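Hey, sorry to bother you again with one of my protein questions. There's a protein on my desk that I can't quite get my head around. No rush at all, and the record is pasted right below.
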Amino acid sequence: MSIQNIILPSRPKAILEEKDKGVYEIDGLAPGYGYTLGNSIRRIILSSLPGSAIVSVKIDGVSHEFSAIEGVKEDVITILLSLKKVRFKLATDEPQTVTLNVTGPKVVTAADIKTTGQVEVMNPELKICEITAKKNLDIEINIEKGVGFVPKEQHTKAKVDIGTITTDAIFSPVRRVSYEVENMRVGDKTNHNRLRLNIETDGTISPREALEKSIRIMIDQLKAVANIQEDEEVVSAPKGEDTSSDSNEDDKDISDVLKTRIDTLDLSTRVLNALNNANIRTLGGLTRKKEVDLLELSGLGQKGVDEIKELMDKYGLKIKD
C-alpha cells in the first residue's frame, strides 16, 4: 500500500455514553493503525489530562499522619486514604481550601465537606470515617489543579505550617482506559482495523471530553515535532495600492517575531509551565488564542493572561479577539 493510498478513518462514534463511562469506535483504520492510535490515545488520556486533587490536610490536634484520634474509629492514615478518594471539580485554576467540621457520633461522608462556590464534590456518598464518641473533628483540606501523579515530596519543598500533612496527588480525572482492535471490511479488503475505546472517568470530566482532549493533545504534539504552523491571518491591502515591494521586509520581520519561542522571553515560571503544558511554544501560537482559551489553561489564571498581554504589547502583537 503506497502512502498516497492510506485511507483516513471515520470520526469517533459513541457506542455507549453514561455519566462517567463511554465506549467509542473509530472505523476504517489502515492495517496496524488501530494499535498505533489506540495505544497513543490511551497513554495520553492516562497521563496528560488536567484534574484536581488534595495536596495537603490539616487535622486539629494531629501533628503527623502516624497518629490516632480519640473517639474516631479510623486512624489518621486511613482517613487520609479515604480523603484522597474524594473527587473535586474546580471552577478556577487557583488553589482552594475546604473544611470538614463534624460533631459525633456520626458516620462522616464527603457530603459533610463545606465547599466554596468554586469547588464541587463529585462523590458525596463516599465514607471518610466514623466518629464513635461525642467529639468534634475539624479538618482543613487544600486542593490544587495539576496533571498526572505528583509525589508529596514535591509539595513539601514549599514551606508548610506545623501540623500540615502533605499527600501524594493523583490529578488524573480518568479511572481506567482500555482499547480493542478488530479487523473489518473496507471495500474488498478485510484487514482494516476498527478501534474500540473504553473510558471511565471520575465524574469531573465526561468520557467524550477526555477522548477529544487527548486527540487534541496528540495533534498539537505532532505539529510541534513536524514544525507545522497554522495559516496566519493576512490583512489585505486596499485595491489599487501596490504594497508588495514595501511589505516583503515587514512580513519577514513579523514572521521572525511570530517564530520567537516563549521559553526565551521574560515570562514567569508559572506562565511558562502552563503554556508548555498546552503545547503553546511560540508568539505565533499565542496570537491564535483568544483570552477565554488562555483562561481555560490549567495553572494560568487572569494574572497570567495579563502578563502575556503585557509581553505581547512589547512586540506589537495581541491575542485573538
User: Anything to note?
Assistant: The CA atoms of residues 173 and 203 lie 8 Å apart. The domain at 51-170 is CATH 2.170.120.12 (RNA Polymerase Alpha Subunit; Chain A, domain 2). The two ends are 45 Å apart (CA to CA). The chain has nine helices and 14 strands.
